[in-house]
Structure formats: C-alpha cells, structure tokens
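It is worth pausing here to work through a concrete case rather than discussing structure prediction in the abstract. The textbook approach is simple: state the sequence, then state the predicted structure, then interpret. We follow exactly that order.
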Amino acid sequence: MFSEPEKVVPYLQLTDGMTVADFGAGSGTYALAAARRVGARGRVYAVEVQKDLLERLGAAARAAKLGNLEIIWGDVEKVGGSKLADGAVDRVIISNLLFEVDGKYTLALEAKRILRPDGLAAVVEWSDSFGGMGPVAERVIKPDEVKKIMAEAGFQFQNDFPAGDHHYGLLFKLKARLAVGQADS
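Step two, the predicted structure:
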C-alpha cells in the first residue's frame, strides 16, 4: 500500500480555517486532502517546482470545486523559495520529497520560516527501496536522519504516525523560543 493522504491528514490536526503548505506537492494528493479538511475558510498552498504537475493539480482542484487550493511554482530547497511570507501557515506537509532533494536542511529551514509559532510539520517518506518501487536504496532517508535534520533546523519531534505499508510519518513542532534571560533546559 502506498502512502494514503486521506488517512494521514487527520494526524496533522487540521481544523476549519487553517492554512497549510504542501512542499513538493507533486500530483497533489496531500494538497487536495488538506483542502477538503480545512474547508472554504482555510487555504492550502501547493508548492511545486514542476510546472506541468501544477497545471494538472490546478485542474484537479477546479474539478473538485476546491477554491481554497492555490498553486505556487517555487523551489522549497531555497529559503524564500516557497514564496510564502514568514509565519504564514499553520501546517507544512513534506511528503515523498526528502529522498529527492539535496538541500534537506535548507528545505527544513524554509518550513520553519513559513510556520506560525504553534505550527506543525509532517514528514512522510519511503521506509525502504522495495526493489525499485520506491527510491533507489542509496536515496532512502531513514527516520533518525529526518529527526536530526529537523532538530538542527529548530524543530522538536512530536510523534510518529502510520503512513501506509511502504512509508513512515513523523510529526514535528517548532521548538519553543526562549524568553530573554530564560535558561535552556
């Protein structure tokens, strides 16, 4: 079984009116599921570097009458590359993307930049290569490596969640910012 966005999205604790960014939206399965979940008052930004995928996703959103989904041609491997404002979103979805990119840390910093202080980031990745069904074995990124990258970028691991037979899911929140004079514990 592949990753199942309709079953994964509830772990993001989305509510009506929230704002979500889907990094590397691809075919848009996560963006579409999130758009249904946040309702007409919410907003989902599907950020993708491949224009042809964005065109198809835009058509799928129109067909599903999801006017709350906005497509953005952007490069999330660069800080500022999502083209979203600082603190613009409540949630960031990073699905089946880290194994493909070289700028994993920069991508994590971009997620941090656009998240509100109480925001959450969900990472869904292939758990193995599966004989060519997933990424090549050398590109598979293990959960501990994701946790390390996210921690270095300023995130705190919250929990893992089921993401399908061939994937794992990890949920992160921004580390609390210390007040001036407060000791780090």
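Step three, interpretation. The chain has a mean pLDDT of 90. The longest strand covers residues 115-126.
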